[in-house]
Amino acid sequence: MECGVCLNEYDSRNHVPTLLDCGHTLCRNCIEDLLSSEQKLCPIDRNPIGTRLVPNYELLSLLELRCQNPIRNLNENELKCKNGHFLACSEDFKAEYEGAGLMFKCKLCKREINDGWLCKFCVFPICDECKRWSTDTQEINDPGIVCVKNHKIRLTPNAEEWNSRIGRWKNGKFLCDTCLVKKTGASAQCRTCNFDMCADCLYKLRQVLSMVEYLICKNKHPLVWLPDFVTSRNKDFACNGCKKRFNKSGSFNCGLCRFDLCILCAESRIVKMRNSIHELL
Ligand SMILES: [Zn+2]
Ligand SMILES: [Zn+2]
Ligand SMILES: [Zn+2]
Ligand SMILES: [Zn+2]
Ligand SMILES: [Zn+2]
Ligand SMILES: [Zn+2]
Ligand SMILES: [Zn+2]
Ligand SMILES: [Zn+2]
Questions:
Q1: What is the pLDDT of residues 143-202, one digit of tens each?
Q2: Distance from Cα 146 to the centre of ligand 6, integer Å
Q3: Closest Cα to residue 71, out of 147, 162, 133?
Q4: Most buried among 24, 85, 219, 251, by the most CB within 10 A?
Q5: Which fold has domain 1-55?
């Protein structure tokens, strides 16, 4: 989306989309030029540009829909929204929008906030704690080790603290979505999806993925790791090994035979296989 006068893409700093009284939108810069001109008319319909110049919230919130996961666009300590805008630190979000009745909820923890980090253009706020999580924890870059929606995940110490903050688990533990065990300590998290993979599962998944070519179904087809299996078909699955149902975890899958293994069952097969190879040697 670009300003019809200067043809620059709208952004949060130099080209904030701003609404004129007549209903047209131009960037803030061009409007300031118009204000200092003699006629002060909208260049599109020649109506007076008016005095109540506010950002175009409709446009801002439309763009917000494209803006979901701030974590992917990290550049060292700089945080960007999905559209590539830098987030700026702000002590008063409402003042940034000139007092308009917008509500600001942290995109990650969903708490209501009025300070923290903001992409002003996309109305993309996150709180300071979530910002620090996004910049200070380690992103996992192994292929295939992602959340149920294929987002990158980050290794978070004390995952129980986050889970109690968002009210998901309040008993000082968190539920690992991939082994369904309540845990404390480190977890590989996607905070957009509230996805947790405990440190044990992370270790096991790495082991399995390094030998995944040895996994087969009962009819000897190779199994394929599908981290987004449940979200892509919108349905949970039952593991053919342990019979447990999983609604937020990937599957080692044979589509032909509808055969699924959870991470733990896949790992125990790999371990058995390794041991039998050792016995042969
Ligand atoms: Zn402009
Ligand atoms: Zn106009
Ligand atoms: Zn937050
Ligand atoms: Zn943005
Ligand atoms: Zn686990
Ligand atoms: Zn996710
Ligand atoms: Zn299983
Ligand atoms: Zn099969």
A1: 999 999 999 999 999 999 999 988 888 788 999 999 999 999 999 999 989 999 999 999
A2: 8
A3: 133
A4: 251
A5: Herpes Virus-1 (3.30.40)
